[in-house]
Amino acid sequence: MVKLANPMYTQWILEAIKKVKKQKQRPSEERICNAVNMSHGLDRKTVLEQLELSVKDGTILKVTNKGLNSYKDPDNPGRLVLPKPKSSSGGGLDWNKLIKRALEGLHEPGGSSLKNIERFLKCQADVAAHLSSSGSVGTNLFHQQLRVALKRAVTHGRVAKQGPLFMLSRSSSQDSSSVALSLESLPAVRLLPHEKDKPVAEPIPICSFCLGTKEQNRDKKPEELVSCADCGNSGHPSCLKFSPELTARVKALWWQCIECKTCSSCQDQGKNADNMLFCDSCDRGFHMECCDPPLTRMPKDIELFRHIQEVALQVTR
Length: 317
What we know:
Blueprint: H1 7-22, H2 29-40, H3 44-56, E1 61-65, E2 68-72, H4 95-106, E3 112-113, H5 114-122, H6 125-155, E4 159-162, E5 165-168, E6 226-227, E7 234-235, H7 237-240, H8 244-251, E8 276-278, E9 285-287, H9 301-316
Antiparallel strand pairs: 1-2, 3-5, 4-5, 6-7, 8-9
Helix pairs in contact: 1-2, 2-3, 4-5, 5-6
């Protein structure tokens, strides 16, 4: 009989990981054990056993970097340590194309689940080759990046979501330029009060999407990276699907990647993360309930752009 982690203990460990991260420390075994013991009185041996079981069943993510183990919440992993590319010729994955290919290929009337989308893509030759060359780390990253890519696709109206199911939106075949407004006509972006004098993480010189560098993107062309001020994760603007205008605006901001993104209004990340909207004019995040007036449904396409753009401008005034 396979032994499973106790859900209550797993929750305690996740709370401990969050607590340790808030203290700007690495969530190691020792710190997690101490935090759980202080909060709930659970002994070290039991905590370590439950931590190992939670890692095995996927409820907690284990990351090893330079021989040191860290533990993360899979639903809020923050910075993921990426493997360095084995050669500069290694191609990356275009998530927008992969998602569209999966949803068109599955062609399920009511929509497709994340599990079905992932299973479909792993059977594709290019994805299978990518995963085989990346090992177990690549497999873990693939799941995380697919979740992130789907979330962003929903936010930007390329994919519609009903409950746990995803489907292509009617506008997904349209060119994004048909709904984009000119960013040049908008006021210049500036740092928000809580962003001023805030420390910036050291940039990781590797794109988390294609694993290329500033010398070579997925199209074998040089391209400067955009880096998260919070965790240092980087990406090529072309991999992030940023226009040249948006890229220029983002570089002037204290930009956060989608894993670290906090609401620019309430400055909270964990609260109702599924209702986080992204501004097409600055890529800042806003909870639906933090908009003024609060939103009760997810706006789409041009409606989303206009509303969130207005909220972003209100916050920066």
